[in-house]
Design goal:
By secondary structure, this protein is α+β, with helices and mostly antiparallel strands. The protein has 12 helices and 19 strands. Helix 8 crosses helix 9, helix 8 packs across helix 12 and helix 10 runs antiparallel to helix 11. The longest helix has 24 residues. The radius of gyration is 24 Å and the shape is globular. Bound molecules: manganese (II) ion (MN). The site of manganese (II) ion has 5 residues, from loops.
Length: 427
C-alpha cells in the first residue's frame, strides 16, 4: 500500500501554516480487566494513512515548515508489559509499514507539540472531529481536539475527516484486491451454510457454519455481526440475535461478510431452509434479483447512490404491482425501506463526504435491494459488492451464486447428512 502518496494528498489539501494531528486511539474498556480487541477499533483514517492498527500512536503532519514534515509517535516496547499483553510495534516495523522515517516514542509527543506550537506559525490545526451521533461517547480524537482547543484557543480547529474521506471513496488496486479476497472467503462461508442448512437448526448454527469457514480461511474476523434471520426475522433489517429455530418452509436471510487486513466484504443471500423455494417465495425472490441485476447494469461514474435507489424502487414496485401486493409505486416504502447502496471499504458503511456526491471510478458500493413482507413471513435481500469502473460497474461478487435454480441445485447436490453436526444447547 502506498501510504506516503495518501499522506501527500492530505498535505496538499491542508491550508498553509497548518498541522494535522491524528490519534490511533486507546483501547475501549469493557469490564474488570477486559478490553475490546483493538484492531477493530483503531481510527480508520489513521489506519488508512499509516497501515498501523495499534493503540496509543499519533500521526503528526506539519505544513508550517518547508519542506513539510511527517512524524509518527509510537509506544516504546516494555518487556514486562509485552509478557502480559503481547508485542508492540517496534520502531523498525513502524517505519517499514508506514513509510514514515521520523518515528519517535509517544512520551515525546507533548514536548514536540509544545515546541512546534511555540516556534512555528500554526494558524490552523486539523483533528478528526467526526461524530456519528451526539448520544455516543465522543471518540478519542474528538476528546483530544477539545483539549487542544482549550490549550490553543486562537488556533483555528478544522475537521480532518472529510479530507481523508474524500480519498477513501476511491479504492486503489491494493484495496480492491483485499476486498476481493474478503469476498472469496465469504463465498466459501456461504457455500458451507448451504451445505449444512436444514429445517430445525438454530439460526446461530448457520452463523457458525459461515464464521468457522471464514476464520479458518484467514479472515481476521467478520466485517460486522452476522445476520441470520429465518422467516419473519428476515424482515428485520439488523436482526442479529440469531437464536430462533429455522422452520421448514421458511427462508433464511444471511447478511454477512469476512474482513481481511482491515478490508470488508458485505454480502446478503437468502436460502430456503429445506433446499426448495415455494412458488410464492420464488416470485418475490425474482423481483429482488431483477432489481439487483438492474443496479449493476446501470451504475456508472457520475451517478449518485440516491439515483441508483430510484432505479431499484422502480423495479421493485413494478414487480409488486404485478404480484398485486401494491397498487401505486409510492406504496413500495411499505415493503422496501432502506437504500440500495452504501460505500464499502475499511468501514462496512464506508465514509462519504456528501450523500449527493457523484460516484467516481474506484468506488466500491453495495447493491442490495430487498423486499420485506411481514404478512407472508418473507424477508429477501440479495446483496453484492460492485466496483465502479471508468464507464460502468462490475460485480466483484459475481461468483457467489444467486438465482433460485443455482441455489436449489447447489443444495440438492452438496447438502450433507447432518448427523455429525453438534446439537444446539440452548434456545
Ligand atoms: Mn450492506
Amino acid at each position: 500500500m502506498d501510504f506516503e502518496s495518501r499522506r501527500q494528498k492530505i498535505l496538499d489539501k491542508m491550508e498553509k501554516n497548518s498541522i494535522a494531528v491524528l490519534y490511533s486511539g486507546i483501547e475501549h474498556h469493557v469490564s474488570a480487566d477486559e478490553y475490546d480487541l483493538f484492531t477493530a477499533q483503531a481510527n480508520r483514517n489513521f489506519f488508512y494513512l499509516t497501515g498501523l492498527r495499534r493503540d496509543n500512536m499519533v500521526l503528526l503532519m506539519d505544513k508550517c515548515v518547508e519542506p513539510e514534515r511527517t512524524m509518527l509517535f509510537i509506544e516504546e516496547a516494555d518487556p514486562l508489559m509485552e509478557r502480559w499483553y503481547g508485542r508492540k510495534v517496534t520502531e523498525e516495523e513502524a517505519i517499514e509499514i508506514s513509510g514514515i522515517d521520523d518515528v519517535k516514542f509517544i512520551d515525546e509527543f507533548e514536548s514536540t507539540m509544545d515546541m512546534l506550537m511555540t516556534r512555528e506559525d500554526v494558524y490552523t490545526a486539523y483533528f478528526d472531529t467526526y461524530r456519528h451521533q451526539k448520544a455516543d461517547l465522543p471518540d478519542y480524537n474528538l476528546v483530544k481536539a477539545n483539549e487542544f482547543r482549550q490549550d490553543y484557543p486562537s488556533v483555528t480547529l478544522k475537521n480532518l475527516f472529510p479530507l481523508v474521506a474524500e480519498e477513501r471513496m476511491q479504492k486503489d488496486d491494493d484495496e480492491i484486491k483485499l476486498i476481493k479476497d474478503a469476498i472469496e472467503l465469504t463465498k466459501q462461508g456461504l457455500n458451507n451454510v448451504m451445505a449444512n442448512l436444514k429445517p430445525g437448526m438454530k439460526e446461530y448454527q448457520a452463523q457458525a457454519d459461515f464464521e468457522y469457514v471464514v476464520r479458518r480461511g484467514g479472515a481476521e474476523w467478520t466485517a460486522f455481526p452476522t445476520i441470520a434471520g429465518s422467516g419473519v426475522n428476515g424482515t428485520m433489517l439488523h436482526y442479529d440475535t440469531n437464536r430462533e429455530t429455522i422452520e421448514d418452509g421458511t427462508l433464511l436471510l444471511l447478511d454477512l461478510g469476512a474482513r481481511i487486513d482491515g478490508y470488508n466484504s458485505d454480502i446478503t443471500r437468502t436460502y430456503p431452509a429445506n433446499g426448495k423455494f415455494t412458488e410464492r417465495q420464488k416470485a418475490v425472490y425474482d423481483i429482488v434479483l431483477a432489481a439487483n441485476r438492474k443496479i449493476v447494469e446501470t451504475a456508472k461514474p457520475g451517478m449518485t447512490t440516491k439515483e441508483l435507489n430510484k432505479v431499484c424502487q422502480d423495479v421493485l414496485s413494478e414487480g409488486l404491482i404485478k404480484l398485486g401486493l401494491i397498487k401505486e409505486p409510492a406504496e413500495i416504502s411499505k415493503y422496501y425501506m432502506h437504500g440500495v447502496s452504501h460505500h464499502l471499504g475499511i468501514d462496512v458503511h464506508d465514509v462519504t463526504v456528501d450523500f449527493n456526491k457523484k460516484l467516481r471510478p474506484g468506488a466500491v458500493i453495495s447493491d442490495e435491494p430487498g423486499l420485506y413482507i411481514d404478512e407472508w413471513g418473507i424477508g429477501i435481500r440479495i446483496e453484492d459488492d460492485v466496483l465502479i469502473t471508468e464507464d460502468g460497474a462490475v460485480c466483484l461478487s459475481e461468483d457467489i451464486i444467486r438465482t433460485t435454480d443455482e441455489i436449489e441445485e447447489y443444495m440438492l447436490r452438496y447438502r450433507r447428512k447432518l448427523d455429525t453436526c453438534c446439537q444446539a444447547m440452548r434456545q
